[in-house]
Every structure is written in C-alpha cells, then in structure tokens.
UniProtKB/TrEMBL annotation, chains A, B, C, D:
This is Transcriptional regulator. It comes from Secundilactobacillus odoratitofui DSM 19909 = JCM 15043. The keyword Secreted does not apply. Keywords: DNA-binding. The keyword Glycoprotein does not apply. One of its GO terms (biological process) is regulation of DNA-templated transcription.
Length: 194, 194, 194, 194
DNA sequence: TATGAATGAGTGTTCATTCAT
DNA sequence: AATGAATGAACACTCATTCAT
C-alpha cells in the first residue's frame, strides 16, 4: 500500500495508542480510531492490513522507540566492566521510560490483549533481548550478580521503573522526589552478588 | 423445583478463568463460556447478573483465595521484629503464588481489561493493602528498608514472584531449581537499608 | 387449572394493569409481573395460559367492570323516550369512567398493543355494542339525532369522557370544575338533530 | 464511494410504518424492518441512530406532513371571524386526515408505545398546538364556543375524524356517503355556545 | 487515495415458556 | 400449588471487513 499523506499513518497509530491508554487495548475498534483521526473507517485499511496489524504496529512502534534512544549501546561495550554495563542497561531503561512514559504501558496492554502474561515486555523482542540477556548472563558468569534466571532480573528492572512512571503520571509524588540512584540501588542491591 | 446444581457456578467461573488464561480477558464472551461449560448461553445469566459480574467474580474468587491462605497474619504480629514481618509478607506471597499459579495472572488480566495499569494487582484490595502497606511503612520508618514508595516495593515483590510462576508453567526450569531463599535474597537485598 | 390462593389471580392482573398504566402494554413481561406480585415467574403460568392470555384477561376484566356497574340498563328500557335513553347511555359511560379512571386507558393500551386502532374501545364487545348501537340507531331512525355512523357517535362519547379522566389524573383541573352536564351538552349538542 | 441510495431512508421508514399499521408499534423490530426492505439488519443503523430514532422518525415524518399541507394557516388569520377560523381548523384536520389516512393512526401508535395516553396526538407538537389552542381559546373567550377545556375539544375533533378515516379504510361505507359538512356539524354543534 | 455504503457475524441481554421437583 | 432451573429464540446494537466509486 502506497501512502500519499505521510502524516496519516502515525496519526492513526497515535489515536490507537490514545485509546489503548485511556480505555485499554480491548476497547480499540476501527470505528473509534477513525473517529479520533477524523477519517473514514475504511481508510484505516489502506494503512493497515487489519485490526491486528494496527495494534501490532502500535506495539512495534513503541519497541522501535527503544532502539532509537540507543542508550543501550553502552551496555554492549565489551571494554567496560560488566557491573558498569549492567548499570548502563538499567539507566537506559530508566531514561527511556521517563522520556516515553506511555511506552511500557502500551506494550503491556497489547501483550495482555493477546493473552500472554510475561511481566517483562521486552522479552520477545530479539534484538534487545539478546543484548540484555547476554550482559546479565555475563554478569552472572562473572559472579557479579546472583545466579538467578535472567527473566527474573529483567522483570524486576521493568516493574520497578514502570511503577515509577505510573506513580509519576498519577501524581503520587513529584518527579524530583526520587532520582535514578534510588531505583538503581533498589535493583542493584537485589541482584548484586555479595 | 429442579434441584440446584451446586457445581455449576464454580464451573462457569472455571470456564471463564480458563478462557482468560488461554486467550486473555478480552476474549471472554458469554457464548464461549457457555459452550465450555456445556450449558445454554442464557443460563449464565442465572448465576451472574451480567458479563461484568461474571468477570469480577473470577477476580474476587482469586482475591479470596489469598485470604483463605491467611499466611499474611504473621506479618501483622507486632511482637515480631519488623524485618521478620517483611520476610513473612514475602513468604506469604511466594507460598500463595506457588499454590495458585494462575491467580496472579487472572487478577492482572482482569485489571488490564478494565484499563488500569498497576503492576501490583493487590493494590486495590483494601485488607491486604493495609496490612502490607503498614508493614512496609513501619520498616521504612524503622530504617530497616530504603525510603522508597511502598508501591515500588510491592510491585517488585509481585513481579519477581509472578515471573517465577510463569517460568515454572513454561517449564523454563524445574520447580526445585530455585527455592524461596533465592527470591527472598533478590528482593530483600534490594530493599534493605544498608 | 385449579387455584388455591384465590387472591393470586387478581393480584397478578393488578400487577399487569399497573405496568400497563405506568409503562405501556408493550412493556409487560412475565418477569416484571412476577416480581411485582412477589411470586415466581413460572407461577404466572398456573393462572394464565400464556402472556397473551394474561393481557387479554386484564382487558376482559375491565370490560366486565362495565357490565358490573349496570347503569346501561336504563338505556334499554323501551318505555323511556329515546333521547333520555341516549342520555342514560352517556351518563353510564361517564359514571363508569369516573369510578374506574384507569379502565379506558387499559382497554385502549391493550387494543393498541394488538395493532388495532379503533378509537372506541367498546366496539368489539358484543353485549354493550348491541345495546348502545341499537339505542343510537333507534334515535337516528326517530330523527332525534343526526344520521351519522354510529361508530362516530360512540367514538365521540368515549374520547371526550376519556380525555376528561386523563385531565383529572394529570391534575389539569379540579374534579368539580366540570360536571356531567358540561360533557353531556358538548356531546349531545353535537349529535342531536335540530 | 458507493453512491447513496436516496430512496433507502424513506423505504425504511415506509417499512416501519407498515409494520406499525399492521401489527402495532410494539411489534417493530429492526430485523423485521430490514427484512421488509430487503437489506441487512445492520444497514438500518446506517440511516437511524437506534431503534428509537427510527420510530421517532416515522412519527416526525407524519407530523411534518401536517405542516406541509399548511391548511392551518387560515386559522391564524386574525382578520377572519373566530368562528370561521375554528371551522378552518376542523377543515384542515379533515383534509389532512383524508389525504393521509394512516397518519393519525401512526402518530397514535407511537405515542401509545411510549406509554402516554393522550387521545390527542397533536398535543405535544408545539407549533400546531399553539395555533390550535389559541384559536379555540379565543373562541371560548369570545363566547363563541363553550367554556370547556381545550383538550376536550381537540380530542373530539380528532376522534371523530380519525374514526371516519378508519371506517373508510375498513370499507364500512363509501367515501362519498358523508362529506365534511356532516362531521363539521357534529363537532361544531357540540362545541358552539348557544 | 479516500470514502460511504453495505454486510454478516458477533455481542450482551431479555424473555416466554417448559420441566422436574 | 408453587418454584427454581433451564433453554432457545429473539432483540438491539457493534464491529471488522469488503466493495464500488
């Protein structure tokens, strides 16, 4: 499908994301999306094969935003000590979550819609998975962090940071009440091998 | 009068839970549920006011299971040092999650269906909330654990343990590969004030 | 069907009538009726063959009330001058309508439910019809009232008196603001041959 | 885009009206209507917001027909003596009813469905109401007609004329057996002040 | 590219009716 | 006589999707 109006596809995705955030992924319908964007319902099908494609596109777009931020690269630099690289990974997630406060929620919503229940939304995203998993695994092998399933560690990282962003959005506290070190020490204190 | 089939209500709830686990809460429909149970669709409405009631009943049933296990009581015993009580709380969640491997997933699914995004499913369950929150808050006040938002701590506990049960269900490792101490040290190491 | 509780059948009819008056005949359902009476839905079927029978019974009961008042007999007395007998008929309808302010409404509602549109609800009730028709026809033949279709005359009588009772129920004026003579002169003035 | 079928909306309204006339307003269902028109059930919702809108549209269409005939204007002409204007009003209703023999029935059916019991269907139609009420009220004030509630007079006019059209439809007599003067004298004879 | 029209399958829900107790 | 349980058919309504323009 060729597109003339370059802004329309993202606008459709934006509308979809908005609905997901407000009403949950299950509440998405092409009718609602079209109404939000101000286009006809059938127009959606020019940009997305079907509803599934639409929702998965929202999902993929959020995942791509992570790549775009690119902070993870630090974690792959083999010349840096592994503990610092783990910290780099946590920092990358933290920065990303603050910069894109809805991303984690969107990703989780879509996954829950599909009936999968992983607490760690990044799990099935190969590129990151590999980077993150290998850093953590290295750290485990080096005796720097505890020998526990990597998925547990990732889940811990994401749940803590995601909860933080949700708290911020709900104005449960001010954004400068806690800084990265707070969350880092919470996470690192748990995983580090003593 | 026809005698009441005492097993039917739970069977309907079971079918609903099964669908939620397999396809996600959004995929629940009265038709599917009825077909699962082998009754007519309208029969569902004899046991549940409407679809919402049905889904909320699944939700409530899981929450009640937590009460039934009652392990949390240890955490409220003021004569025990607060650090031990925090451990008691973590143990209670752990035991419950292992005994009811689907509960956390069911609860999260229902909450996600409603469009809420809390990582911690116990949050809106007053009784537990109060107990857990007050124990953690006490521990913070006593300088035993780090002064971070209680919601972060709870979310950490749940995500780690939930991920563990999911891993077990997916046969990612054997159930005796890791024991409670593994998860406790992971969590406690993070939250404890050093 | 034999009935033990002699009061139950009328109570069911009362409930049905109440619903008809409040929500219209189309809104009657056995569920609602049973709930109103405080019995089980299926119990209704012990007293009435089906929903149609129930509604028609309400209808018939109202028609029977007219017979019970028996004021019409005056109209049949051949020894009385026909003009007086016409007056007797109008008076009978008037008295009946005031004594049973809901009857005409109930009858009309049922007829409208069935999709018939006669303005004169008594039309298909043989006994009265005969009496009334023959009095009016006699009056026409005697040159006392205008030679118009009898149905028009009856419809005029009923609509005027019915509207009056509705006005009273809606408190549009007090019940002693107008008396029988008002309506009689309105009706009689129209039909009488000058 | 598929070109709009201009005839479809009226065809849906026609089908609905037909059902109302044959089976009563309570018997209208979107399935029946669609089947009548030969379209899919959901197509009805492209033209009418919901079933209520559909039925009210039938109602409104009939009321608009009255405006379209516009004969009532004569009744508002202040330069004409009030008695003549009352006659103009009655004539307008008569002409309208003959030209649109189903209109009064349709209007009444819809009103009865809504559970209202007014005998006079024009009552809640502000424009006409105002015109008619004020003419009649003027006539009362001028001592030309009897001082009775206006609603009674209107109800008399409508019931007589409506019954006439029903009689015609049922072939109870030929359309030229009676003319306007018959009904006018019946009505006017009743209301006029002597 | 874009749209309005159309549809068929689906949803939740109500209800009249039957049946076994 | 009375009831709770059960059902199947109906209903209003929504939605994903297709098609002709």
């Amino acid at each position: 499908m060729r597109k003339k109006d370059e802004t329309k596809e993202p606008r459709i995705l934006d509308a979809t994301a908005e609905i997901i955030l407000k009403e949950g992924a299950a509440a998405v319908s092409t009718v609602k999306v079209a109404k939000h964007v101000g286009i006809s319902q059938s127009n959606v099908y020019l940009y997305f094969k079907d509803k599934d494609d639409l929702i998965m596109s929202v999902y993929r777009r959020e995942l791509n935003k992570i790549d775009a931020t690119g902070d993870l690269e630090l974690a792959t630099d083999q010349s840096i000590p592994v503990a610092k690289r783990v910290r780099g990974y946590i920092k990358a997630v933290y920065d990303f979550a603050l910069a894109n406060p809805d991303s984690l929620t969107l990703i989780q919503q879509v996954k829950f819609l599909l009936g999968q229940h992983d607490t760690n939304p990044f799990e099935d995203y190969p590129e990151h998975e590999n980077v993150v998993i290998s850093v953590l695994q290295e750290a485990i092998d080096a005796g720097v962090i505890k020998p526990v399933p990597v998925s547990l560690l990732m889940s811990m990282v994401f749940s803590v940071i995601h909860t933080h962003t949700l708290n911020l959005q709900k104005n449960r506290y001010a954004s400068n009440d806690y800084d990265f070190e707070t969350f880092y020490s919470l996470i690192w204190g748990g995983m580090k091998q003593e």
